[in-house]
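User: Fold this; tokens only.

Assistant: Input:
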Amino acid sequence: MKDRNSSDLSHHILPNSATMVGVCIMVISIVKSMPPGLANYLIDKALAIDSLLFMVSALLSFSSIRLEQCTERLERWAEMLFLLGLFSMTLITVIFSFEIV
């Protein structure tokens, strides 16, 4: 049986992961409307991978809410992927904002 704090975490990860998928899609569509170049290509691919991280995080979070077995493990993976997605999105932003690539 899940404790209350564990359940609350999944309820926060799910909507925020879904929102971040939308953010990635929006930025990808903006980048696609710009003139082609290496930086735009790299931003596009990096954010596509990032959106997959957020999507898997959302699916694991949803599964953790719906299933009664392995919920803590699913929630832990959802949390780790969500944090990895946030970290990678921040890294992508810094790299391209400061024109490191």
